[in-house]
Design brief:
Elements: E1 8-10, E2 16-18, E3 26-32, H1 41-52, E4 57-63, H2 75-86, H3 105-113, E5 129-132, E6 138-142, H4 148-175, E7 183-185, E8 194-196
Parallel strand pairs: 3-4
Antiparallel strand pairs: 1-2, 3-5, 5-6, 7-8
Helix pairs in contact: 1-4
Length: 202
């Protein structure tokens, strides 16, 4: 099964970045523009990234000039605009096309996995967003009007659910006698319990 980790993209500085770099993370992938009515969403996207990055969320921005010629600058200009106007620090990529025969392969896949209204694949405007889970699969597509603040409630719930599943998996593994790395028996210390080994113990 194809996943987002099968794709690569050039970042805003021209370096090829495999998306497998963020394997296991929850991704919010957005086609952005600097001269759009939705451009102020950059602020919300940056806040979302800062608030939830330690929980496992990554925001990825892909500039696109296919909608009203609202991303006319080159990558240097886009990077400067984002950093000076909105203090953007989340990963940004080189300009791509998201519709048509020259659409970036990543976006061809995203659209096929997360269709829009009435099953349409075509992206209608800037700041359409795709939520990708920790297994690399598209789980939801958001319209440009869906704000980062609204989406943040969904991502937080998903990240919290992932944390609960990890905790449950750890507990089940422990009951089955499968110990995480760093655990060992302390019978050599005269105890029957299994506890995390401390440096210098025994």
């Amino acid at each position: 099964m194809t996943s987002v980790y099968d794709f690569s993209a050039r970042d805003i500085d021209g370096q090829l970045r495999p998306l497998s770099e963020w394997r296991g993370k929850t991704l919010l992938i957005v086609n952005v523009a600097s001269k759009c009515g939705f451009t102020p969403q950059y602020k919300g996207l940056e806040s979302l990234w800062q608030d939830q990055r330690d929980r496992g969320l990554v925001v990825l921005g892909f500039p696109c000039d296919q909608f009203g010629h609202q991303e006319p600058g080159d990558e240097t200009e886009i990077k400067s605009f984002c950093s000076t106007r909105y203090d953007v620090t989340f990963p940004m990529f080189a300009k791509v096309e998201v519709n048509g025969e020259h659409a970036d392969p990543l976006y061809q896949w995203l659209k096929s996995q997360g269709k829009g209204i009435l099953g349409s694949e075509s992206i209608k405007w800037n700041f359409t967003k795709f939520l990708v889970d920790a297994q690399g699969q598209v789980v939801k597509r958001y319209a440009p009007t869906d704000t980062p603040e609204k989406i943040g409630k969904d991502t937080l719930a998903r990240l919290a659910g992932g944390a609960r599943r990890l905790l449950l998996h750890t507990r089940v593994s422990a009951r089955r006698g499968i110990r995480p790395a760093g655990w060992r028996s302390r019978r050599s210390c005269g105890r029957r319990l299994h506890r995390p080994a401390r440096a210098g113990s025994c």
